[in-house]
Amino acid sequence: MLCKICSAESKFYLLTKVLGKYDVKYYKCSSCQHIQTEEPYWLDESYSNAITKLDIGLITRNELMTPVVKAVISKWYDPNALFIDYGGGYGMLVRMMRDRGFNFYRQDIYCDNLYAENFDITDVSPFKAELLTAFEVFEHLKNPVEEIQKMLALSDNILFTTSVQPNSNVTPESWWYFIPETGQHVALYSRDSLQYLADKFNLNYYWNEHNVHLFTNKKINSKLFRLITSPRFVRWYNKFISKREALLDKDFILIRNKLNANIVVKSI
Prior knowledge:
It is globular, with a radius of gyration of 20 Å. It has a domain at 55-163 and 190-267: Rossmann fold. It is an alpha/beta fold. A six-stranded mixed beta sheet has the order 5-4-6-7-10-9, with helices on both faces. Helices cover 32% and strands 19% of the residues. The protein contains eight helices and ten strands. It has helices at residues 43-46, 58-76, 92-98, 144-154, 191-200, 222-228, 231-238, 248-267; strands spanning 10-18, 22-29, 35-37, 82-86, 103-107, 131-135, 158-161, 187-188, 204-207, 212-216. Pfam families: Methyltransf_23 (PF13489). Keywords: Methyltransferase, Transferase. InterPro entries: SAM-dependent_MTases_sf. One of its GO terms (molecular function) is methyltransferase activity. It comes from Spirosoma oryzae.
């Protein structure tokens, strides 16, 4: 089997039970150390519920990442531009960022948009974002290179989270991030595999030595990136950033006008 990151030989690594019933083979790249499953034939079943019962950290994750996104945008990007949350789930981050004055839209092919309806990628065209966020998405990618190409068609800059293999001998027993119970984590990255992806697309790669990563066409201060993506520091940092006008009122008017327009059309 070939590695889906660097195309080197990927050798059988381990066998584990996925969704409690499928014996699934995992392969590890001999070059970049990327871990991938065999062809994931079980994904339709895995995504019958896009947000799994084990994703109990959904709200906390959005609370933690909102100030990080605000800080990264304010420091290195144009805060007046368009932004997209890729694989944005229920749309919670999009709504939270719009409430902080950032023009965010959502994309997700699996999940219903509950919190950011009318602010989906299909609601604006053409779409070229200043920054694309992809939180807890990369590990779900069946074909990472192809999917990242899609992301880069939307933005030259990708701020994402994924956990990096903590050592060279990780197993489902020693590392919770496999999560075979849900069957959705089909790609598990090493530092080398992420660096390979950045190099492949001629992007600079920054990592906060935890779970936040940035692929970008900009050269930035790596120490400052680690600092302002730290939960302890970022809230203090954001105190020195000017508050932006929330888009809540404008969004309310836009949605109300759409609703009224539909009422008029139906009455005719």
